[in-house]
Amino acid sequence: MKKILLTCFALFLFFVFNSCRKRDNGCALELDPAIKAPDSEIVRLQNYITSNNITATQHPSGIFYDIITQGSGNVPGQCTQVGVTYVGTLSSGVEFDRSNTTVFYQLGGFIYGWRIGLPLIKKGGKMKLYVPPALGYGQTDIMNNNGVVVIPKNSILVFEVNLNEVN
Q1: Do residues 160 and 94 make contact, with C-beta atoms less than 8 angstroms apart?
Q2: Across-strand partners of 82?
Q3: Reduced to 3 DSSP states, what percent helix, strand and coil does the chain have, rounded to the nearest 5?
Q4: Which of the residues 23, 51, 86, 155 has an alpha carbon 20 to 30 A from that of 64?
Q5: What does the pLDDT look like over 130-151, one tens digit per residue?
Q6: Phi/psi at 30 (nearest 5 deg)?
Q7: Residue 129 φ/ψ region, left for φ over 0, alpha for ψ in the -120 to 50 degree band, beta for the rest
Q8: Model's pTM, two decimal places?
Q9: DSSP calls for 14-65
């Protein structure tokens, strides 16, 4: 099941990576500061946070975050290779993905919620990210190889992320 979820995750990383804007600044991945979740999704996420007594900070993009540990190393950029361990759950609490060992990806290849959130901490940091659908997988059902939906479209995603490496 983990391999299936990682395969699905890798496919979406590929699509996100290919949709990035290219600029001639030595880095082909640049985060568009104008990207923001729709107000309706932000309100839905705010309601989730309030009803669950969660303490989190709202970012202008619409993600919410809670920095558990700031870390003391380097801050990742969009072209930086990062090593993370994480747990991903739906707002219902159902776990859809987990990495107990450090996995490495380029930050610019993640969903926008991660691309916005991870630079808020440094190497060695830990945070919780609350991602509205538009900055996650949006209106696309994510299915495993058996055709079972593991992340329903328009899902609020909750991630606990450890930023173990910044290269």
Answers
A1: no
A2: 105, 166
A3: 25, 30, 40
A4: 23
A5: 999 999 999 999 998 899 999 9
A6: -135, 135
A7: beta
A8: 0.83
A9: HHHHHTSB--SSS-S-B--TT----HHHHHHHHHHHHHTT---EEPTTS-EE
